[in-house]
């Protein structure tokens, strides 16, 4: 008889130490590099590391060199034996095996964060529906990093530091790794957001990736605390009777912006400016203007509007929370750790909301006002009472940039449809996972009193996703099923006017035009239709649908998308390079 081994429950997460801020920050002020412990889904890794969703293959295309993989069984060094132990700065700066683990951990943590927010597993956006993304931490000797859908990969470059005496690795930048991972995850969730549409949609990919990266930084309490304790521009920040406390005055919105936000933005900008990160400083301090949408058309400039709005909403809610702690007039200061904890909690919730809103966004043609409405809806679903005035702050800050909710309801969230849908011929049980069953429902309800789809278009269900959402305070679980319906129709430019769409000025009549439209359907746990979000490709009963198609076509035509033969996919490598170039130009101006 064999000895019965005690049953040990499988752990779901494991802790790994990652670089929390760009390594140059520690180096420049003579302190150790700031690191943080993050929770990563537990798994038995293969050499690389290679896991069930991420596989690091550390090939450098510039030098044609394959770096040695991290062997998970190797415990010859303390940092390898215990992934949560401290890591010497020399290892952080020089050991490619640590770079591989750092990149792996940040990508997995970001994936887990999305899965938590959405309450389900998430796929990468690859054509073959592959499960593992390839990651090259030292992909090339160039100041760039990007997500490549074609290569199913995240590629991180490296470049010489300003002083020229060492390399700067973009795979060590928390911000850049999370930004690129977010592009890949967003592409998996809303495949069509990479295609040509309004200027908002192109900008959204960039803005959203920055929002997730920044809120992920603020959601780490130890990082927020460290930032609050750091002197800014050489002057000591502490105004209190002793270090480690926050005075009432410091808890005001403007002062929080000056201290914490500017500190993060500035530190991001330092070494990573060749890769375009100094624009974060710009968005953090951007002055609200109702003309911003007219002024900023280019993707990354326009994306900064979303970043500015979200950061300001975050600060405003954080300041409100802090002011509540000062309600007693005798309270002159609070513990700074406590203040950081509040900030991390607000950031974490806002991050969940920013991600969850994607499920309440249309499958194509996302605009900023639509995203605002999606966030307001996502929040109302789990927090009916707006105790922190988060929804109010979001509306207020978007409003300052001239962006209003897409929904006409009083609270700016999506309205529940008034139509009575027909369910007679569909079974809810299979509608939770079967695209054919959902399509049958869609087809039976296509008429204008129900889903109002355009009959003459090619229509298909591109995803069906059952999900569980957790409410932040009471652990309440909301069950929903989200399905995406896509419509497309190919017309020649000369035919457009027959359908109520304007032919862009100067576009030849024989030019081929593909129009897209689509709906996101949200079903409640009993199979009822809760929300119908988006527009059919054409809708003769609603002239505003054709009006929006006309405006998008005109804008694409003006931006040169039709000058090439076919629709071209946007390439993040190019977007990031433009961003880098313009941020260098900015620095030039500043200096
Ligand atoms: Zn990007």
How would you characterize the overall build of this protein?
The chain is α+β, with helices and mostly antiparallel strands and 591 residues long. The chain folds into three domains: 13-108 and 127-174; 209-400, no CATH class; 428-558, no CATH class. It is 40% helix and 17% strand. It contains 18 helices and 15 strands. It has helices spanning 23-28, 78-81, 89-94, 96-118, 174-189, 199-218, 221-229, 253-272, 279-284, 292-295, 299-325, 336-356, 368-382, 390-400, 428-431, 435-444, 543-558, 572-590; strands at 13-19, 35-41, 54-56, 59-60, 65-66, 133-141, 145-148, 153-160, 167-169, 245-247, 333-335, 458-470, 477-492, 512-523, 529-535. The strands form five sheets. Strands 3, 6, 7, 8 and 9 form a five-stranded mixed beta sheet that branches. A four-stranded antiparallel beta sheet has the order 12-13-14-15, with helices on both faces. A hairpin with a 6-residue loop joins strand 12 (458-470) and strand 13 (477-492). The longest helix is centred in the middle third of the chain and has 27 residues, at 299-325. Zinc ion is lined by residues 179, 183, 206, 209, 572, 576.
Mean pLDDT: 86
Q: In which range does the helix fraction lie? A: 40-55%
How much of the sequence lies in strands comes to 15-25%
Q: How many strand segments?
A: 15
Total domains: 3
N/C terminus separation: 78 Å
Radius of gyration: 25 Å
Class by alpha and beta content: alpha+beta
| Number of helical regions | 18
């Amino acid at each position: 008889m064999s000895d019965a081994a005690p049953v040990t429950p499988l752990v779901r997460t494991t802790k790994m130490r990652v670089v929390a801020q760009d390594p140059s920050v520690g180096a420049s002020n003579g302190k150790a590099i700031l690191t943080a412990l993050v929770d990563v889904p537990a798994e038995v890794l293969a050499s690389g590391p290679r896991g069930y969703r991420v596989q690091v293959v550390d090939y450098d295309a510039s030098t044609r060199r394959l770096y040695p993989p991290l062997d998970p069984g190797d415990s010859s060094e303390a940092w390898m034996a215990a992934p949560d132990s401290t890591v010497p700065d020399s290892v952080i700066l020089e050991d490619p095996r640590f770079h591989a683990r750092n990149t792996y951990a940040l990508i997995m943590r970001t994936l887990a964060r999305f899965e938590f927010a959405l309450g389900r597993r998430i796929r990468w956006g690859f054509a073959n529906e592959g499960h593992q993304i390839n990651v090259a931490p030292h992909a090339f000797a160039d100041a760039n990093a990007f997500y490549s859908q074609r290569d199913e990969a995240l590629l991180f470059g490296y470049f010489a530091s300003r002083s020229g005496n060492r390399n700067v690795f973009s795979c060590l930048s928390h911000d850049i790794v999370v930004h690129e991972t977010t592009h890949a995850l967003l592409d998996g969730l809303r495949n069509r957001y990479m295609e040509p549409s309004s200027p908002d949609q192109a900008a959204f990919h960039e803005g959203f990736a920055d929002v997730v990266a920044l809120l992920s930084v603020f959601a780490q309490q130890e990082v927020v605390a460290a930032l609050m304790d750091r002197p800014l521009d050489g002057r000591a920040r502490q105004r209190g009777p002793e270090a480690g406390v926050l005075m009432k005055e410091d808890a005001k919105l403007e002062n929080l912006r000056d201290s914490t936000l500017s500190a993060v933005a500035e530190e991001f900008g330092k070494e990573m400016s060749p890769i375009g990160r100094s624009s974060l400083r710009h968005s953090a301090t951007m002055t609200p203007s109702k003309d911003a949408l007219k002024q900023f058309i280019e993707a990354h400039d326009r994306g900064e509007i979303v970043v500015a709005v979200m950061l300001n909403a975050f600060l405003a809610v954080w300041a409100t929370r802090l002011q509540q702690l000062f309600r007693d007039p005798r309270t002159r200061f609070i513990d700074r750790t406590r203040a950081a904890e509040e900030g991390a909690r607000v950031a974490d919730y806002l991050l969940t909301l920013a991600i969850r809103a994607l499920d309440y966004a249309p499958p194509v043609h996302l605009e900023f006002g639509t995203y605002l409405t999606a966030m307001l809806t996502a929040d109302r679903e789990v927090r009916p009472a707006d105790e922190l005035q988060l929804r109010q702050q979001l509306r207020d800050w978007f409003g300052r940039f001239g962006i209003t909710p897409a929904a006409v309801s009083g609270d700016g969230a999506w309205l529940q449809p008034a139509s009575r849908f027909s369910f007679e011929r569909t079974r809810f049980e299979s509608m939770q996972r079967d695209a054919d069953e959902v399509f049958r429902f869609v087809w039976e309800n296509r008429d204008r009193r129900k889903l109002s789809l355009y009959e003459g278009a090619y229509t298909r269900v591109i995803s069906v996703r059952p999900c569980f959402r957790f409410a932040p305070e009471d652990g309440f679980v909301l069950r929903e099923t989200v399905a995406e319906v896509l419509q497309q129709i190919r017309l020649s430019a000369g035919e457009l006017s027959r359908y109520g769409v304007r032919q862009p000025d100067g576009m030849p009549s024989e030019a081929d035009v593909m129009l897209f439209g689509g709906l996101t359907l949200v079903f409640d746990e009993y199979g009822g239709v809760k929300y119908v979000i988006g527009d059919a490709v054409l809708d003769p009963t609603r002239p505003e649908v054709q009006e929006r198609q006309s405006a998008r076509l005109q804008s694409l035509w003006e931006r040169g998308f039709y000058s090439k033969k076919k629709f071209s996919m946007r390439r993040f490598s190019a977007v990031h390079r433009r961003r880098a170039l313009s941020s260098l130009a900015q620095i030039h101006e500043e200096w």
